[in-house]
Amino acid sequence: MTTTFVRRGFLGCLAPAHRALLMEYAKETSFPADATLFEESAPADRFWVVRTGSVTLDVQVPGLGPGAVEILGPGELLGWSFVRRHRWLL
């Protein structure tokens, strides 16, 4: 991740020492459109910072299928459940 990107958005709000700690675990990743990044109740073992594009969070609505509940864009954090290593929650 570039230094410029890291200083904007969520990561830009952190103290430099905290940001450096998180960046030790960072790696750049891309996903194809319509990829599933995690499923509700699965172990939460990572997080993502959206650099480009968007991520749609959805839930399964009984009898209707998936329904979008939020769309995240550049600079936003996906995976708050990771902070305490719980399970994915929406």
UniProtKB/TrEMBL annotation:
On the tree of life, the source organism's domain of life is: Bacteria
Task: Note the CDD domains from the entry.
Answer: CAP_ED
Domain Cyclic nucleotide-binding stretches:
10-79
Q: What is this protein called?
A: Cyclic nucleotide-binding domain-containing protein
Q: Which organism is it from?
A: Streptomyces albiaxialis
